[in-house]
Amino acid sequence: MPIYLDNAATTPVCPEAAQAAWETMTAGFGNPSSGYALGQQAAAAVKVHRETVARCLGCLPEEVTFLSCGTEGDNWSIRAAADYGLRKGRHLITTAIEHAAVLEPMRALEGQGWEVTYLKPDRQGHISVEALAAALRPDTVLVSMMLVNNELGTLLPVAQAARAIRASGAPALLHCDAVQGFLKVPFTPGDLGVDLLTISGHKIRAPKGIGAQYIRKGLRLKPLLLGGGQEGGLRSGTEPTAQIAALAAACAAWRPEYRRQMAEVKAYALERLGTVPGLEVVSPGEAPHICAVSLPGYPSEMLVRDLSDRGICVSSGSACHKGRPSHVFAALGLPKRVLMGVLRISFSPDSTRAEADALAEGLTAITQNRIAMR
């Protein structure tokens, strides 16, 4: 088995989630919209699963809508919020270090005449609440800010953003991409003061293809999909019952001590990586599971391949970049040599100190081989 240190990209499915999906696919496979017993059993199961996810998220079950993924939730939030506020203004605010699932719909709206302000991070990847407050206008109808940056592990000031919006009097809704934050850092939508919040199952050991959207009670958005009226009429289509069961099982299986375990392994990894010749820490990350480092002068993709040859999986940034330079690291204004050698390392509750040792030893060997070849 490879040493897997790219858990911000995706996570292995936990046994509880796999078992829940299997049982649903083989025994509880009825269509929840069907009137006979098998279908009604499936509907009852979906109701219980929604309650489980809502409990872990800290909201009401009726505030949870199941989706296919985080990208779907981000896209829907941005487009629906823009439509919701159309009569009040055409100004949107986000950050320059959001996931592409937020930035691309923002750019699409710009092409339709909307004005978007992109808040820039400081050198450590943090966003200023003061900059947000200064950017808010009477015609600002949406602020979208992620909770945990998926490449740096930094925490963004979402709760402070909510207070700034209220203080400004702007009519803006607040959306949060919490895909990397859910269960990794403590929060509830109420604590954050958000109107919309997106999570994704495959970041917390559920299968790919399932996510959820928090929509504050009382907020009436345009439906994402029209059809049979499933998900309260907001997202029509037959419910993916196996994936929903797996998401609920993964949520229920998550333990509070996982945060401490991941943070301890990450801290040890950063300590060990400090012994690698020339390595620089780009971001230690406040979240317990993500950090970013660089070997200046070493191309990231080369490092990823060389480590892969040694059975170690890390990335050069978000998997969605597919080899393209990361806009997140570029936004930090890093020197070119540092920027070209960036690696993202991300941990799971199963990550170990031995794996951190192997990573440090692998990177050290790569640098030594290069010195020997000179």
Topology (elements, then pairings):
Elements (H helix, E strand, L loop, with lengths): L2 E2 L10 H12 L10 H21 L6 E4 L2 H15 L6 E5 L4 H11 L4 E5 L9 H7 L4 E5 L13 H11 L4 E5 L11 H4 L3 E5 L10 E5 L25 H13 L3 H17 L6 E4 L6 E5 L5 H10 L2 E2 L13 H5 L4 H5 L1 E5 L6 H21 L1
Parallel strand pairs: 1-11, 3-4, 3-5, 5-6, 6-7
Antiparallel strand pairs: 2-8, 7-8, 9-10, 10-12
Kindly describe this structure.
There is one protein chain. By secondary structure, this protein is an alpha/beta fold. The chain folds into two domains: 127 residues, Aspartate Aminotransferase, domain 1 (Alpha-Beta Complex), CATH 3.90.1150; 239 residues, Aspartate Aminotransferase, domain 2. It contains 13 helices and twelve strands. A seven-stranded mixed sheet has the order 2-8-7-6-5-3-4, with helices on both faces. A three-stranded antiparallel sheet has the order 9-10-12. The chain has a two-stranded parallel sheet with strand order 1-11. A hairpin with a 6-residue loop joins β9 and β10. The longest helix has 21 residues. The chain is globular.
Name of the CATH architecture of the largest domain = 3-Layer(aba) Sandwich
Rg, Å, rounded: 21 Å
Biggest sheet: strands side by side, in what order?
2-8-7-6-5-3-4
CATH T-level topology of the largest domain: Aspartate Aminotransferase, domain 2
Features of this protein?
single chain; 374 residues; alpha/beta; Aspartate Aminotransferase, domain 1; Aspartate Aminotransferase, domain 2; 2 domains; seven-stranded mixed β-sheet; three-stranded antiparallel β-sheet; 12 strands
